[in-house]
Automatic annotation (TrEMBL):
InterPro entries, A to Z: MFS, MFS_dom, MFS_spinster-like, MFS_trans_sf
Organism field: Granulicella cerasi
Signal peptide (from-to): none
Transmembrane segments: 12-30, 56-78, 85-108, 114-137, 144-162, 174-194, 220-243, 255-280, 292-314, 320-339, 383-403
CDD domains (alphabetical): MFS_spinster_like
Cellular compartments annotated: Membrane
Protein name: Spinster family MFS transporter
Length: 417
């Protein structure tokens, strides 16, 4: 088992922080590239396997079922054992699942492959942020995690763009196979160049027992951070899965063009929102730790009216309103992860991230794609996407309420929440 030790330095960062952040951000990029290939190619998958909207939406649902089921185990492992070797193993497993897509011949085979991908992504999604937290002091985590989360819009964008264009010329299977190569390369770089950080904490009471883990459900700062994020993730996940299809059905775009448009908007507006949100929270946290909750609240509430205009406005407004909505949705991604990690002690970081991922997917993007598909099947896709509007409003309210629980921030690696 890994032992929690005193840090090598009491400055804002520990040795090897930049290398670790660079490599883990690169792997996060690959993660989201893999995840958003399916939305780009799902019209082709639907036609080949003769699926309804509800059934194609269930692919993402079962992906997150596996993701959520794996989270408690990976959280337990991450708080007790070195995370570097486990990150390398899950990165190689993700690449392996993408290579296996070449042999999928039916819906259920694709579903099993997609669920296995979910297990690998759950492992990385828990281990990586907790490991980054051990390299950076509390007042620097927002910046580090903002950089880490820059990979979300960039990776998602390339998934849309590459998935749609490769599928249009070479078929949807080839899009998944092509995405496996960068995953293998990054996994090998992590194996060779990244070090395992020392775990830091204030006291010598480091055991992770049932009582300490159970304390998370009584932690107001933690609960409001993850529940607000879950509400926003319901909207973001649903829009990400169904918007390429929306552009094809209602905007008259071809698959490759829809993927390119969605990819461009995601990388430009999503990346811009992530960076601006991180900078805004960084300045605001100099005055109050509540900023890590206020920025995500503004993110959800400001995205709401532009999403309405995107779904229901004139056809010429669809793309510009989508761009503004994506910008605001991504505004809170860095600060909310910093809020989650700052709300818990060092010995519970992996467990806290496991809890966050459980909430994000059980209440967020696990049901959203299926719910939108079911509503679309019985009405139309515009009304299906409209369910995301309610979740944005709920997310903004939860974050605003959660600001009252925001803890004081510390300025060195040794001091913890």
């Amino acid at each position: 088992m890994s032992e929690i030790k005193k840090p090598e330095t009491q400055s804002g960062t520990a040795k090897g922080a930049i290398v670790a952040l660079t490599l883990l951000t690169a792997m996060n990029f690959v993660n989201y590239l893999d995840r958003y290939i399916l939305p780009a190619v799902q019209e082709q998958v639907k036609n080949e396997f003769h699926l309804t909207d509800e059934r194609i939406g269930s692919l993402t649902f079962f992906f997150f079922v596996a993701y959520v089921c794996a989270s408690p185990v990976t959280g337990w492992l991450g708080d007790r054992f070195p995370r570097k070797p486990m990150i390398v193993i899950c990165a190689l497993a993700i690449a392996g699942m993408n290579f296996l897509t070449a042999h999928v011949t039916g819906f259920w085979e694709l579903n099993v492959r997609h669920m296995a991908l979910g297990v690998g992504e759950a492992c990385f999604g828990i281990f990586a942020p907790a490991l980054i937290a051990d390299f950076y002091a509390e007042d620097r985590r927002n910046g580090a995690l903002t950089i880490f989360n820059v990979a979300i819009p960039v990776g998602s964008a390339l998934g849309f763009l590459a998935g749609g264009n490769i599928a249009q010329t070479h078929g949807w299977r080839m899009a998944f196979i092509a995405s496996a190569v960068p995953g293998v390369l990054v996994a090998l770089l992590i194996l060779v160049f990244m070090r395992e950080p020392q775990r830091v904490a204030k006291t010598e009471s480091h055991s992770v027992d049932k009582a300490s883990a159970a304390s998370l459900i009584k932690n107001g700062a933690y609960l409001t951070a993850i529940l607000g994020y879950a509400a926003v993730t319901f909207a973001l996940g649903g829009i990400s899965v169904w918007m390429p299809t929306f552009l094809q059905r209602f905007d008259g775009r071809e698959m490759g063009a829809a993927g390119t448009i969605m990819g461009t908007i995601t990388v430009v507006c999503g990346l811009g929102g992530t960076i601006v949100g991180g900078l805004l929270a960084g300045q605001w946290t100099k005055k109050t730790g509540k900023a890590l909750y206020y920025v995500p609240a503004l993110s959800a509430l400001l995205a709401l009216p532009f999403s309405v205009l995107c779904f229901f406005g004139p056809k010429g407004w669809t793309l510009p309103m989508l761009g503004v909505a994506v910008f605001f949705i991504f505004l809170g991604t860095g600060p909310v992860n910093a809020a989650t990690l700052n709300a818990v002690p060092a010995n519970l970081r992996s467990a806290a991230m496991a809890g966050q991922l459980f909430a994000l997917h059980v209440f967020g993007d696990m049901p959203s794609s299926w719910v939108i598909g079911a509503v679309s099947q019985h009405t139309n896709l515009r009304l299906g996407l409209a369910v995301t509007l309610v979740s944005m409003l709920v997310g903004g309210i939860i974050f605003t309420y959660g600001a009252r629980y925001a803890p004081e921030l510390h300025h060195n690696v040794e001091a913890t929440a």
